[in-house]
Structure formats: structure tokens, C-alpha cells
Amino acid sequence: FKHMDKPLFELRGVEYSYLGKFPALCGIDLTIEAGSKSAVIGANGSGKSSLLAMLDALIFPDKGSIKAYGRELKGAMEQESVFARSFRKRVGFVFQNPDVQLFCPTVREEIIFGPLQLGMEKQQVQEQLERLVALFNLEALLERPAYQLSIGEKKKVAIASVLAISPEVLLLDEPTAGLDPRTTCDIIDTILAANEEGRTVITA
User: What is the pTM of this model?
Assistant: First the structure.
């Protein structure tokens, strides 16, 4: 992945409140370099998920500014289809609750949905599917709907579906919460390997 002269993300004086009255982020200054590993640590309700959602351009500051790839992220960005498409391909978000993220009829369709939407060639999509199925040992689950899976299986599928688009940035909201030790180790190994490949990893 290309390393940039400018930071990957720059937040300056960021403030955000839900419904205009429940403060989530107050005066955040943060710089994240390309290829780095970062952890956001705090108690429940301290704004970790809100920060990740902002880095994924799902919410935007009430005050202050956030830049990604040298461009300011604003509410109208999805109308700028070229930048929005590029951003969505570069940045992948694994939600804390996989049920929020998984919606396709089967695990197979879940993993290939993102690459197909972003215009990846079918041969490349198939190769990604095979690689991720092997990595997460999902072969037996491919034709099952996500709602029938255990929490650990859902987490693996959610991470696999994000890795399928080969993002430059991985945003992970408590990716090992509620998992058994074996699955936790597998997921941590996968996250570390992604960073070693040059991906920027930001974990709450």
C-alpha cells in the first residue's frame, strides 16, 4: 500500500453529540499514519464506537474537522461518487455487533457482496472467497444464513466480508468481545497479519 506524505486521518477539535444533547466526542485531536496500528481504549459509553463511525464517514463532526486521504469528510461526500467509492473501497468497518452488518441470505453471498458492489472482477471475487473461507475455516457454513451461526462464527464472517474488499484501513469495534479463547486468538492473528501486510488497523 502507498505510504502518504500527509497523515491518513487528521481530526482537529472534533465534537459530536447524539440528537444535539448527548455528548459522545469532545475536543478530539488525533492523527493516524498510514500502515500504523492504533487502539482506542475506554469504558462503555466513552465514545469509542462514535469515533470509529466518524473515521468511516458514517457520522460527521458538529464542530471541528476530520480529514481522510487529505480530503475533509463532510455529510455531502456520498454525493461525490468518485471519492465516496474510492473511500468505501479503502476503508472497511467491522461493527461491534455482527447482526448489524450481516444481511445476505447465505455466508457465501455475505463475503462476496462487497467485492461485487465495488466492481471487482468475478475471478478475483472467487479467489478472495476461497482465500477467506480457508483462513477462517468457513467451508461448512457457506450455504447457511448468518442468523443461524454462533456469535464467534458471525464475527468471523463479518471480518471476512470486510477483508474481501481488500481495504487499506481496517476499523474494528471490539472484534473479540464475547468470543472463546481459540476464536479470539484466530482473529487477533488475522488482524496482526493484516497490519504486517501494510494495512492501517484501528481497534476499539
Answer: 0.92
